[in-house]
Amino acid sequence: MTEIPEKYRDLFQKKAFAHIATVMSDGSPQVTPVWFDAEDGLVRINTARGRTKDRNLKPGVKVALSIQDPDDPYRQVQIRGTVIEETEKGASDHIDALSKKYLGRDVYPFHDPKHARVIYKIEPSSFQSNR
Q1: What is the predicted pLDDT for the residue at 84?
Q2: CA 5, CA 12: separation in Å to the nearest integer?
């Protein structure tokens, strides 16, 4: 596993959005802005079952993420990696934690009991930046 370089770790603490690139079943690209964090060197994103990115993300799938520094739009990092795990375990707590980070709210205000939440864990293989 490639460790998150020190010079990019601050982006994981800020309210930076990641844009995740996935591939549709017809081979066309799809990009979605997402909330994210990191744990044990893995990038984690959270979504609801049934969304496009949920259909595209499965263990073993390769993805790319672009993270732009909200304090300096000319600073960014691109991460390439592989989805190594998907789990619904702890996903509701995770989206609440992301809600705290991004909205300042302890509980995610858009919980929908009709849609299960899922965490995707991405193992980075490379980091590239313009700086």
Answers
A1: 98
A2: 11
**How far apart, in Å, are the Cα atoms of 104 and each of 19, 107, 109?**
21, 9, 11
The answer to whether 47 and 30 have CB atoms below 8 angstroms apart is no
Q: Provide the residue ranges of all domains of the chain, joining segments of one domain with +.
A: 6-123
- Number of C-beta neighbours around residue 77 at 10 A: 21
Q: In what order do the strands lie in the sheet containing 42-48?
A: 29-34, 18-23, 62-69, 72-87, 117-129, 42-48, 36-39
**pTM for this entry:** 0.94
H or E element at residue 124: strand 117-129
Q: Half-sphere exposure (CA, 13 Å, Cβ side) for 6?
A: 0
Model confidence pLDDT, tens digit, residues 31-83: 999 999 999 999 999 999 999 999 999 999 999 999 999 999 999 999 999 99
Q: Which CATH superfamily is domain 6-123 in?
A: Electron Transport, Fmn-binding Protein; Chain A (2.30.110.10)
Residues 34, 63: contact at Cβ < 8 Å? no
9-23 tens-digit pLDDT: 999 999 999 999 999
